[in-house]
Specification:
CATH class: Mainly Alpha
Helix content: 40-55%
Largest sheet: 2 strands, antiparallel
Shape: globular
Distance between the termini: 22 Å
Order of helices and strands: EEHHH
Strand order of the largest sheet: 1-2
Radius of gyration: 13 Å
Low-confidence stretches: none
Number of domains: 1
Number of helices: 3
Protein name: Aryl-sulfate sulfotransferase
Number of strands: 2
Structural class: alpha+beta
CATH topology: Ribbon-helix-helix fold
CATH superfamily: protein bp1543
Mean pLDDT: 91
């Protein structure tokens, strides 16, 4: 258990703003924690990081959904940090 977050918790829906438009993303608390940490390490707000991930996602040949793209981006970041 990491603080108040357990590894096995259903997704939590939160609102984010991308390019002036509000949308919601459902992520497990572990991924929300990882996203906040990544944003802090990069010195940007969570919304800005999600917007950047969204631009990369849309450029893909077969773009995943936004929540999936966030999870994949975080997993890729964790994997390359090894």
């Amino acid at each position: 258990m990491r603080g108040m977050t357990t590894d096995y918790h259903p997704p939590v829906k939160r609102s984010v703003e991308i390019a002036g438009h509000k949308t919601s993303i459902s992520l497990e608390p572990l991924f929300w924690d990882m996203l906040r940490t990544a944003a802090a390490e990069e010195g940007v707000p969570v919304n800005a990081l999600v917007a950047r991930i969204d631009v990369e996602r849309i450029a893909a040949d077969t773009p995943p959904g936004l929540a999936g793209a966030v999870r994949l981006w975080l997993a890729s970041r964790a994997f390359t940090a090894r």
